[in-house]
Give the backbone structure.
Amino acid sequence: MTKTILYARVSTSDQTVAHQRAQAEAKGYAFDAVVTDDGVSGKVPLKERPQGKRLFDVLRRGDTLVVRWVDRLGRDYNDVTDTIRHFMREGIIIKTIINDMEFDGSRTDAMGMALRDAMMTFMAGMAQAHMEATKDAQRAGIEHSKAKEPEKFLGRKPTFDAEKLAEVLRMADMGANNSEIARQTGLIRQTVIRIRADPVKAATVVALWEGA
């Protein structure tokens, strides 16, 4: 019998397992188990986290692993992609609460696997870019300066956040055109075009503002 497991890594005071679970349940998920690493640094690989290790033992082919976002699955790009590839080789389905991304390890069709793997590597790269940009913002002391003149230091605040950025990229990967993406997300068409032209830059700008 297959099962659905929520994995939550809670590392800051504004994150709670209850909130992550509520977000997931609002989207229709029902969990057989919730695995939590509380207060564990994001620098620690998943397989070395106290409860992260459990996932490698309890997940089986056909099971579904739900996480808030792909950055929960590792400390950096390589760790995240290695973790996702491991679970997909085992036939496990990974789903994200943010923007409903799915990485289906049970797929066997060549085109489906190619699209899945391309999205996996891009999302892992975007997660790392977001993390690095946030650290840069903190090191630069933007938190102190933002209260006075934020646009002088960060540029104009983007009209999209990390979740909407991921939605644009997801729809683009599914073949939607710029006008359709703009209509569905509420962004102007020119913004969609800029995001698709340089998604890493878009992710960095969002990270700077969210980390400031």
